[in-house]
Design a protein that fits this description.
Largest sheet: 7 strands, mixed
Radius of gyration: 30 Å
CATH superfamily of the largest domain: Glutamyl-trna Synthetase, Domain 2
Number of strands: 29
Helix content: 25-40%
Strand content: 15-25%
CATH architecture of the largest domain: Orthogonal Bundle
Bound molecules: adenosine-5'-triphosphate, magnesium ion
Structural class: alpha/beta
CATH topology of the largest domain: Glutamyl-tRNA Synthetase, domain 2
Shape: elongated
CATH class of the largest domain: Mainly Alpha
Strand order of the largest sheet: 12-27-28-29-25-26-13
Number of helices: 14
Length: 569
């Protein structure tokens, strides 16, 4: 996992760390990943996880996992469990025990008192709305609160009263006393503590005042001995407050904050708040819906931990915000699956084909490779009989220019088997084709036809050898590049983001998978395949039933998104 000489290691953050270690500014690198347990992790978090854990691994340092749990209204133990599971699944292990900002609530309270005693914090009783108004704008200075000049004793008493539950929510808060005319709005007396009456998942009802992110984060970093605290660019201005708090309290360790560009991915929503809206409105099924780029959604779609790590490595770390191509993410899983997925045939949208010159009880077994380039991956057997399924789209009743697959009067090769020629079709009373009647040229097994053009090849499954399955084909959830930027992002949904097909896989493959998915061990792993000509698929371990497996298409065989033409060949 950690290659000491790759390009990723040349980014500006690595260079800062390298320099700090070289100059002994830091003896042992200590990073942290600080998720707020108010949602599931997504691919943007993976970028941060990759940076923090890989860096610590490379320099034999440590990376802490710390839940930034300062807002009990939005947080939940279910999110804590999913976050732990996702980090482990990605291949990382945090340093010793898991930390919570809530562990430090008492220390944080003492540091807040210290600020009050230094006349650097006060209890304000303006309403939330008034605080916002008094704060001013980017072009106008803020106004001091009438409560700003309370004396130290009164502030200490009121802060204690806040802690003891003498105020209602919103009636009082603790603010830092900095500068209401600072050009940095963050420095205009930021709120440090607010009142929330809600049971906390770690501290129960012990506290009714909760520190704000900016107050808790820097002090938690300091208590844990974090040397380098990495966050995304939006926190650039917050760094002033981060440093101000550390400088004005008696903390004994000074971590440093550095910012990098967050990951934005084309066609994707990564904000947890917006993902929650998608779930509430039932546009997606849950946090693990394969159409969103949460870690659990990607896992369910068939992404592997190594493909996600590879993606993080490829996108690198920069200081400029940009929008990453979705195809880059797909490229990472496609190349991995190309190397290791077992090849087999499945028919997703079936139509029956009857070979009239073959006997009803004739059966032939072909041994076919599991991987075209890797004989070490073995072989499997497929059964050939006179009635098979092919894909509907591999046959055209009417003449179409440049159509190279099966049509009346033309030939096609069945993968691993014979060349066949379509002669006529049978239809039901509604005019739907029920069967394509073909002639099978039994002289063409493994041979090029003599004096004839080599026809195109299509995949198939013998009806006798088939087992019913469902296939879920995914497209992008949004049809614009940057839905995250749109206020009404819900108006840009792609109505075809999931297409369900009912078709067939080989019986033996079905049996093999059924025995595997009953094995608990497999629960967190993917069983993936390349269904020849249709893409890479994995078994959906959530919805698959005993008698009917469900397959999610992880990724198409080629990049069809950037090259729509490829689809029509
Ligand atoms: P969201 O915007 O999805 O709600 P958040 O920043 O509020 O995310 P946190 O749980 O606070 O979520 O994030 C934990 C860590 O992951 C932070 O250090 C944050 O900077 C980082 N992170 C979150 N989103 C991204 C992203 N898109 N790219 C890179 N890092 C991210
Ligand atoms: Mg956050």
């Amino acid at each position: 996992m950690n290659n000491k000489n790759n390009k990723y290691n040349n980014n500006f953050i690595y260079n800062i760390v390298k320099q700090d270690l070289k100059e002994n500014k830091c003896l042992l690198l200590h990073t942290r990943f600080p998720p707020e347990p108010n949602g599931y992790l997504h691919i943007g978090h993976a970028k941060s996880i990759y940076l923090n854990f890989e860096l610590a691994n490379l320099y034999n340092g440590y990376c802490n996992l710390r839940f930034d749990d300062t807002n009990p209204i939005k947080e939940n133990i279910k999110y804590i469990n999913s976050i732990k599971n996702d980090i482990k699944w990605l291949g990382y292990q945090w340093n010793k025990k898991i930390h919570y900002s809530s562990e430090y609530f008492l220390q944080l309270y003492r540091y807040a008192e210290e600020l009050i005693k230094k006349d650097l914090a006060y209890v304000d009783q303006l309403t939330k709305e008034q605080i916002r108004k008094y704060r001013g704008t980017l072009i106008t200075a803020g106004t001091n609160s009438p409560y700003r000049n309370r004396n130290i004793e009164e502030n200490l008493k009121l802060f204690e009263k806040m802690k003891k539950g003498h105020f209602n929510e919103g009636e009082a808060c603790l603010r830092a006393k900095i500068d209401m005319s600072s050009p940095y709005i963050i420095m205009r007396d930021p709120v440090l503590y607010r009142i929330i009456y809600k049971k906390h998942h770690q501290t129960n009802n012990q506290w009714c005042i909760y520190p704000m992110y900016d107050f808790a984060h820097c002090i938690s970093d300091s208590i844990e001995g974090i040397t380098h605290s990495f966050c995304t660019l939006e926190f650039q201005d917050n760094k002033r407050l981060y440093n101000w708090i550390l400088e004005n309290t008696s903390v004994s360790h000074y971590p440093k904050q550095y910012e990098f560009a967050r990951l934005n991915l084309k066609y994707s929503i990564l904000s947890k708040r917006k993902i929650k809206i998608l779930i509430e409105k039932k546009i997606i099924n849950n946090w693990d819906d394969p159409r969103i780029q949460t870690i659990s959604g990607l896992r369910r779609k068939g992404y592997t931990p190594s493909s996600i790590r590879e993606f993080c490595k490829k996108i690198g770390i920069t200081k400029q915000n940009n929008l990453i191509e979705f195809s880059m993410l797909e490229y990472c899983i496609r190349s991995e699956l190309n190397a290791k997925a077992i090849r087999t045939m499945a028919v997703l949208d079936p139509i029956k084909l009857y070979l009239y010159n073959i006997d009803d009880n004739y059966q032939e077994i072909f041994t076919v490779p599991n991987h075209p380039k890797k004989p070490e991956l073995g072989t499997h057997e497929i059964i050939f009989t006179n009635t098979i399924y092919i894909e509907k789209e591999d046959f055209k009743e009417k003449y179409e220019k440049n159509y190279k697959r099966l049509k009346i009067g033309s030939e096609i090769r069945l993968r691993y088997a014979y060349i066949i020629k379509a002669e006529k079709i049978e239809k039901d009373i509604n005019g739907n084709i029920t069967q394509i009647i073909c002639f099978c040229d039994l002289n063409t097994l493994g041979k090029k036809p003599i004096n004839r053009k080599n026809p195109a090849v299509i995949h198939w499954i013998s009806v006798k050898n088939s087992h019913i399955s469902e296939f879920r084909l995914y497209e992008k959830l949004f049809n614009i590049h940057n839905p995250e930027q749109e206020k009404n992002f819900l108006s840009f949904l792609n109505p075809n983001s999931m297409i369900v097909k009912n078709g067939f896989i080989e019986k033996k493959i079905n049996e093999k998978i059924q025995t595997k998915i009953n094995n608990i061990e497999i629960k967190n792993k993917n069983l993936f395949f390349q269904f020849e000509r249709v893409g890479y698929f994995c078994v959906d371990l959530v919805d698959s039933k005993k008698n009917k497996l469900i397959f999610n298409r992880t990724v198409s065989l080629r990049d069809t998104w950037n090259n729509k033409k490829a689809k029509n060949n």
